Amino acid sequence: xxxxxxxxxxxxxxxLLASMAAAVALGPSGISFGSLFSSDNAWMILWExxxxxxxxxxxxxxxxxxxxTAMQGLFRNPMADPYIxxxxxxxxxxxxxxxxxxxxxxxxxxAFAGAMIATFTVYFIARRGGKIPVETLLLSGVALAxxxxxxxxxxxxxxxxxxxQIMFWLxxxxxxxxxxxVAVALPILIGGAGIYLFARDLNILALDEEDATHLGVNVERxxxxxxxxxxxxxxxxxxxxxxxxxxxxxxxxxxxxIIGPDHRFLFPAAALAGAILLVWADALTRTxxxxxxxxxxxxxxxxxxxxxxxxxxxxx
Amino acid sequence: MKPxxxxxxxxxxxxxxxxxxxxxxxxxxxILGIVGPNGSGKTTLLKAMSRIVARDNGxxxxxxxxxxxxxxxxxxxxxxxxxxxxSIGFDYTVREIVMMGRHPHIGRFASETVRDVEICNHxxxxxxxxxxxxxxxHEISGxxxxxxxxxxxxxxxPKILLLDEATSNLDVSHQVEILNIIRELAGEITVVxxxxxxxxxxxxxxxxxxxxxxxxxxxxxxxEVLTREKIREIFGxxxxxxxxxxxxxxxxxPVYLQxxxxxxxxxxxVVCGGGTGxxxxxxxxxxxxxxxxxxxxxxxxxxxxAMHLGLPCVAEPPFHGITPESLSRLRGCLENAExxxxxxxxxxxxxxxxxxxxxxxxxxxxxxxxxxxxxxxxDYTGGEAGAVLASxxxxxxxxxxxxEELLARLSQEGSGRD
Lengths: 316, 418
Fold this sequence. Notes:
- The complex is a heterodimer of chains A (316) and B (418).
- With 316 residues, chain A is mainly alpha-helical.
- Chain A has helices at residues 5-25, 35-38, 40-74, 87-102, 107-126, 134-157, 163-171, 179-185, 187-196, 199-205, 209-214, 219-241, 247-259, 263-288, 294-315.
- Chain A has a single domain (57-315), classed as ABC transporter involved in vitamin B12 uptake, BtuC (Orthogonal Bundle).
- In chain B, the strands form 4 sheets. Chain B has a 6-stranded mixed beta sheet, with helices on both faces. In chain B, strands 15-14-13-16-17-18 form a 6-stranded parallel beta sheet, with helices on both faces.
């Protein structure tokens, strides 16, 4: 099974490139290949709207999947993902604050700060004697999300004219994406690379924390760095595209089944698959609906998957 | 310079003291066993040595370096731990698990080299799991998984191997297999292991550290540590301690009958010889009877047992027949005894008087004790012994088989009298 890992990853790279190309070609205003050379307008739509949008979708999908993989490994719990444990909510609150208070400037910084604070809050609430049991993790995630959504409602209540902007942005989507946003999203790759450096540590952490210490892993430091990097990546993803749920839950799961639990292969596979998934989700919503927020689509598919996971875990 | 040296450490969980003033060291290449009852702090001591639990004070030194001065990875290159078992959440292969042992040797920005693979292969061969390399850790048995953990520990190339009851969950053949592997490794590696099973500890360890109530109670060779007195003191129960017939190491057997007051200091004289009485001397003494025995040859195993237990015993030098002085001392014992037990011993001219004298005490109840169905008295006196036995039986002497029946019979005799 493990020998096939490079083949799977190579296939995923090809699939991602093909998906991105297809997604650039898809859109509500049908642009033919020939019109690119005859019409400035067609070139504009393609280069200024579709290309940055597709790249941003790929980056955000990749970031969410990597953060989800890291959190599942870290918590030794396949139910963890940035959306469920509150990282996304924290990021959303931070970004909303930026919209309300500063008309959107500093959105990335505040989204990142919010994601970080929310993540570490859940981490400390859920911890029981050095372990993170699934119940306390989900419950403290729910508790914190409730609090954050109350704060968010308050902000929206007082938002006035920017309410519409917040609403749309919260549902998660990629309209109004410019090359500027792509630049904002690029550090996702840096955060992802940082997380990848801990792939071997995560493999060992999957055993048992005490055991990992015996093998030379500085468990507490690894956890803090990985949580901070995951919050960083998620914060950026949220700042760019709002909160898009379940990509971080589903992709690591499916990829673990296909490529095995070794994080050195799992990370690239999940990153590529997350990118492919979000590129297609975005392409489908903007082509076949009138640009419905993509977060609605991922939640429609993701939530049943989450319930399925919960049920099968309860059986086991 | 000692591979590991523990200097006056205290450990507590919250307000509860777990270990107090522990001081010892391990010698290079030895197997040092940590034994003691539940709750005596064995596992905590091991965890303090692998820095999983913090100590309140005191010092731990590895090759003369302070344990606390070592980084996580450096510590893992020196000390490897084999836990009792681990739960492995994801579906790793045996090779992947063993390769994790190389983690402290591989830099964060590096990946496994050919040398790492070779070291893993070697470790898997030593632990006898090479044939399982490609299998999932969920597909193999508990004993195999434990050997995988040993291979992983060896891949760390440690100087010190710590085992926390690493074989407790396994059946005896796997325990022996794994401990034999460990035995082979000792010499190059210093091993410190917590043992639950005293007999495994006695056989496999060069020295034992006995813990009681958070403190070191004894430290030394197994023969010095596992004595009857110390074990009774520590575990609060009677045990038979014998040399193992093949290894000569101490061998501990619990006396399962927990009737320490059954004997109530009642006096029992045991006529035995040729090792046929050692078990019941232990048993009766342990059960609280006031036991005397004799007349015995001083080279007899039973004499050794009696001396070991500190029992009054009439004895003669070898090939010496029973002298009138001994006989009168024997009579003294018999007069005092409430009950007389005769074991299924060989009887020759030399010890025939031991039996004959019983005929002079018709009022004393006599019990013939045979350890098992096949044990019987060998008569080397041409029938004289048989005649004595027959007349004793005619007067009501009973035959019992096995220690439990003997104890039951003795307590009946007791209640009959009361």
